[in-house]
Amino acid sequence: MKKFSLRVETSLSNIDEKRWNTCASKDKNFNPFNSYQFLKALELSQSVNNSSGWNSAHLIIENNDKKIVAIVPSYLKTNSSGEYVFDYEWANAYHRAGGQYYPKLQISIPYTQ
Prior knowledge:
Blueprint: E1 5-9, H1 17-24, H2 36-44, E2 54-56, E3 58-62, E4 68-72, E5 74-77, H3 88-96, E6 104-107
Antiparallel strand pairs: 1-3, 2-5, 3-4, 5-6
């Protein structure tokens, strides 16, 4: 029986580039925005960091053999900047109702539409 484990990585530096790309782009439908190189460039340029409101929280699922079987580029957002749907009014309404809207989990590729 196969078992899987889920982990959250806060930096691509903690993930092997080849293992990420093998899982992310196995076939001819290569998406450069899902590639390790693109996402790592966002980290190195500080486009994703605490100041930008995009904090890496990549979801990694591995099997018993530690093979990555699924990756989900994810971020803990502390604001609505850089998104394709701006939800400032939702955040304001939630705050007025006494809730805490941020941080929120954003499953997407930053700065793409």
